[in-house]
Amino acid sequence: MSVFHIRRLFCCFGFLFSLMPTHALAADKVAGQVTVQWLGHAAFKLTSVTGKVILIDPFITKNPKLSAEQKDLIKLGKVDLILVTHAHGDHVGDGPALAKQHNAPLYGPAGLGNTLVALGELPAELAPRFNKGGVITPLGEGIKITMTRAEHSSEYLWTNPKTSQAEVHVGGEPAGFIIEFENGFKVYHMGDTGLFGDMSLISRYYQPDLVMIPIGGHFVMNPKDAAFATTHYLKPKYAIPMHYGTNPNLKGTPEEYIGELGKSTTKVLNMKFWEVVKF
Ligand SMILES: [Zn+2]
Q1: Partners of 46 in the β-ladder
Q2: What is the DSSP letter of 271?
Q3: Helix or strand holding residue 204 (H, E)
Q4: Which residue among 62, 120, 191, 209 sits deepest, i.e. has the most Cβ atoms within 10 Å of its Cβ?
C-alpha cells in the first residue's frame, strides 16, 4: 500500500509521517516499511511490509475518548492476528469479537485464552496457547512474535449472561510483546507495566527500535518512571507514549514524559488518535 493510499485512508483522522529506517537491511530481510497506527489507549494497528495486519489490545468501541467514526470496527479493514497483553477489559476490548469476525487468532497469556474458550467467548482454534519467552511465527517466518514479562495483574472480569452477575476469572499473567517484522524493524509493546529491572535485559537481548510505553500512572508507570525506563533500560530509537488520559486516574501526559526525559537519543512520537507513522 502506498503512502498516498494510506494518507487518503486516514486523512480524516490524523496525520501520516514517515521515518526512514536507519539500520542496514540484512540479507534475509524484505525491503519496505511497517505502518503503525495508534487507535487510542494501548491499542495499535500494525501493518507489516507484506501487508499482514496485527491488532494489539483492541479496546475501541468502549473507549470514551474515541469518536463514533473511530469506534467503527469496519474501518479497521482486514485483520490477520490479534495480540492481547492481559485480561483487563481495556485491553481485551473488542478482541474476541474481531477474532470471530475476521477468523483471526487471538494470542495472549495462556490463562486468558483458556478462560475465553471456557466461557464461550472464543472457539479454541482462535485462542492458540502461547506464553512468555516463546517465539511464534503464525503469519510466516518473516514476522516473529515473542511474549515478554510485564509487572501488572490480569484478572478477567466477566458478566455471566445467565445470572447477570459479575464474575472474576483467571486471565494468565500480564505480558508485553516483541514483534520483529520482515524488514528487521522491531517493536516492543510493553503492555501495562510498572518499572522492573528486566526491561534492561529485554532491551539488550531483543534490541527494539520502537517502544510503546505506558505513562498514565496509577495502574502503570507514570511519566517519571517511563522516562527512567527509557533512558536507563530501553534506549530505543523511537518511543510512543500510551495508556494515558483515558480515565481520570491516568493523569500522566506525553509532555511530562518528554520533560522528564530531557536530552535523550530517543525520539518521542506524541501521536494523535488514528495517526499513522511508517518505519
Ligand atoms: Zn491492566
Answers
A1: 36, 54
A2: P
A3: helix 199-206
A4: 191
Distance in Å, CA 88 to ligand 1 centroid: 5
Cα–ligand 1 centroid distance for 91 (angstroms)? 7
β partners of residue 81: 54
pLDDT tens-digit readout, 217-276: 999 999 999 999 999 999 999 999 999 999 999 999 999 999 999 999 999 999 999 999
Interatomic CA distance for residues 94 and 99, integer angstroms: 8
Give the integer Cα–Cα distance in Å for 140 and 45: 18
Could you tell me the distance, in angstroms and rounded to a whole number, from the CA of residue 209 to the centre of ligand 1? 24
Instruction: Decide: 47 and 33 in contact? Cβ < 8 Å.
Output: no
pLDDT grade for 4, boundaries at 50, 70 and 90: very low
Torsional sign, CA 83, 235, 39, 22 = negative
Centre of ligand 1 to C-alpha 243, Å, is: 9
Cα-to-centroid distance, 152 and ligand 1 (Å): 7
% of the chain residues with pLDDT over 90: 89
Distance 31 CA to ligand 1 centre (A): 35
For residues 36 and 212, the answer to whether their CB atoms sit within 8 Å is no
Determine the 3-state secondary structure of 10 from DSSP.
Answer: helix
Residue 265 C-alpha to ligand 1 middle, in angstroms? 29
Return the DSSP state at 25. P
How far apart CA 79 and CA 101 sit, in angstroms, is: 9
Measured CA to CA, the distance from residue 230 to residue 193 in angstroms comes to 13
